[in-house]
């Protein structure tokens, strides 16, 4: 008589019941709405509910109502950038099967930032759209370079090698950014404030310019969800299931690079959102990317919006940029993931 074996933890995680997932979806949506309301209510001055409703109706007669009107695009941009970075990180983790994959850790953000810096110095970039194109190009080149360096050797692109290649590349690109910008006093001050990473300068115009790139990247990533499930089984099994492994990796990586490059262009290099959120969401909904990717999009939007609110509240009337808040949260989480996962593949 044969003894039935229990399914492994990965299988159990992949088979989370739909009812539990839908329940968590409602919770995440409710938290996101509350965080966005907090974002328009709290800041250098706290605004009451009557002023919030009046401002949403188009009234800006009082200082409180004017503050709400100014905070609305900031809140929208924080949600969009957070969603883009979280989704980009989840897709990068799925493509590389690396639990440490994150646009900041792998040097993607720094590649986008260096491209913008070079563009500002050489061709005088001054429009958000031009920033976005340069940022996407820089992010793509940086991604290819890190993956190529991490693939050197007989073992191929292991998670540890990719993480080390990304860390080394980030350090090198950061030095290059300083070397490019520092001699140019006319752009150094504005660039340094953008370099920290934040959404304080949000306008409806900048949101409109970046939105088409974010939507395109979002659609590409979501369409790759089923294929990413196959990649999680290994390249050989994925190919046996009919997936064109190289094509799937390329297309999914393109979507992730578009999201990361566009988000970096409009908000600066914000790290660790793409690392923290996918790991948290796997605890809630399992490993199925068809559920995971929508969840990380919503949770990432809420996380960066909450970080922006915290940054405005802890040092009133001044503020701390959201990129600093996410770094303070993400650095310990990164250490935890390294110790717990021991840099294994997903």
| Integer count of domains | 1
Mean pLDDT: 83
CATH class: Mainly Alpha
Number of helices: 15
Strand content of the residues, in percent?
A: under 5%
Shape type: globular
**Main β sheet profile:** none
Give me the count of strands.
0
Helix/strand order: HHHHHHHHHHHHHHH
Unreliable sequence segments: 1-14
CATH topology: ABC transporter involved in vitamin B12 uptake, BtuC
Helix content: over 70%
| Chain oligomer state | single chain
Q: Using the 3D structure, state the CATH architecture.
A: Orthogonal Bundle
Explain what the structure shows.
By secondary structure, this protein is mainly α. It has a single domain, classed as ABC transporter involved in vitamin B12 uptake, BtuC, CATH 1.10.3470. It is built from 15 helices and no strands. Helix 4 (63-96) runs antiparallel to helix 12 (245-267), helix 4 (63-96) packs antiparallel against helix 14 (289-313) and helix 5 (108-122) crosses helix 6 (128-150). The model is unreliable at 1-14 (pLDDT under 50). It is a multi-pass membrane protein. Belongs to the binding-protein-dependent transport system permease family. FecCD subfamily. Its main location: membrane.
């Amino acid at each position: 008589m044969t003894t039935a074996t229990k399914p492994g933890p990965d299988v159990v995680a992949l088979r989370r019941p739909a009812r539990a997932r839908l329940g968590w979806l409602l919770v995440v949506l409710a938290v996101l709405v509350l965080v966005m309301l907090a974002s328009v209510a709290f800041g250098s001055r706290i605004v009451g509910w009557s002023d919030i409703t009046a401002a949403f109706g188009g009234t800006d007669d009082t200082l409180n109502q004017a503050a709400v009107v100014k905070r609305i695009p900031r809140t929208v941009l924080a949600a969009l950038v957070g969603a883009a970075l979280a989704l980009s990180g989840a897709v990068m983790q799925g493509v590389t099967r690396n639990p440490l994959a994150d646009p900041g850790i792998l040097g993607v953000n720094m590649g986008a930032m260096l491209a913008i810096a070079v563009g500002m110095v050489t061709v005088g970039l001054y429009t958000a759209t031009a920033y976005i194109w340069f940022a996407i190009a820089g992010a793509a080149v940086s991604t290819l370079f890190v993956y190529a360096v991490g693939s050197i050797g007989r073992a191929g692109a292991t998670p540890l090698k990719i993480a080390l290649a990304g860390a080394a590349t980030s350090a090198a690109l950061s030095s290059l950014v300083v070397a490019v910008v520092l001699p140019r006093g006319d752009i150094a001050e504005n660039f340094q404030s953008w370099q920290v990473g934040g959404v304080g300068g949000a306008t409806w115009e900048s949101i409109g310019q970046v939105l088409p790139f974010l939507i395109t990247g979002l659609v590409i990533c979501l369409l790759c969800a089923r294929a990413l499930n196959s990649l999680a089984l290994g390249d050989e099994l994925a190919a046996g299931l009919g997936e064109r492994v190289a094509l799937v990796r390329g297309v999914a990586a393109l979507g992730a690079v578009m999201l990361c490059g566009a988000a970096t262009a409009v908000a600066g290099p914000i790290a660790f959102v793409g690392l923290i959120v996918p790991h948290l969401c796997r605890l809630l909904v399992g490993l199925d990317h068809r559920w995971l990717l929508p969840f990380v999009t919503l949770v990432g939007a809420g996380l960066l919006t909450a970080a922006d609110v915290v940054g405005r509240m802890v040092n009133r009337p001044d503020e701390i940029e959201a990129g600093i808040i996410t770094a303070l949260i993400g650095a310990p989480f990164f250490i935890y993931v390294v110790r717990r996962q021991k840099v294994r593949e997903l």
